[in-house]
Amino acid sequence: MWEPDCSEARASLDEQGAWFCEDAVAASVAADLREEILRAHSAGLLTQSGNVLALRTADGRRAGVAQEKPNVFEADIIVGGIVERPDVLSQCPVLERLLSEEGDLRAALNDARPELRLDRLEQAKIQVNTGGG
Length: 133
What we know:
- The structure is a single chain.
- This protein is of the alpha+beta class.
- Helix content is 37%, strand content 28%.
- Strands 1, 2, 3 and 4 form a 4-stranded antiparallel β-sheet that branches.
- Strand 2 and strand 3 (82-83) form a beta hairpin.
- The longest helix is centred in the first third of the chain and has 16 residues, at 27-42.
- The two termini are 33 Å apart.
């Protein structure tokens, strides 16, 4: 399923510290994946996204304030290399297959930049932005 062209990965990682691949999967796979994620959102499997902002109180203690991201919904599928949301994967077979074959993508990236030594997928999430935020 993975079809990345990693020929620019090394140079991009060296110059920018990041690499973006627009055509990592076929257009039909991307369209199917998008539909699955939207169905998962409609089924209530994604939750309101947000951040906790660190701050210091007037007395110098550390605290945090939760900030919701308006109209942004997500599900953390893999956290720390562990599948956290098998319920989402059971509803999203294309996503499940892509994630089960992520070793192919990792191998291509390791070939492009061996010193990365990527040995597992640490985190995967899906997200829907409903606009207006």
